[in-house]
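Continuing the series of single-chain predictions for the mutant panel. This is the parent chain; the variants come on the following pages.
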Amino acid sequence: MNAADPGLAAFVAAAPQPQRAALRLLLALARRPRGKAVLRTLAPAAQVAEGLTAMGHFEDPAVAVKLGWDADAIASRGRALRRAEGRL
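Parent structure:
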């Protein structure tokens, strides 16, 4: 597991034991060129591995903003809405 992906590590750690081992294996394979080649022979496994590695990037603020998730802007809109509704 990559220490740079704390959210992904927490996601994998929350899985039940059989799935946790499988997720760790998929991530290990997906991070290596030869592992990716092996995964390509099993399309469903490759799709899961690709999705997992993509999840690791979502915590990067620059990536999140490009995907339409700007946490600061969302929090600001929420505060403005609560103020406008008198729910401060």
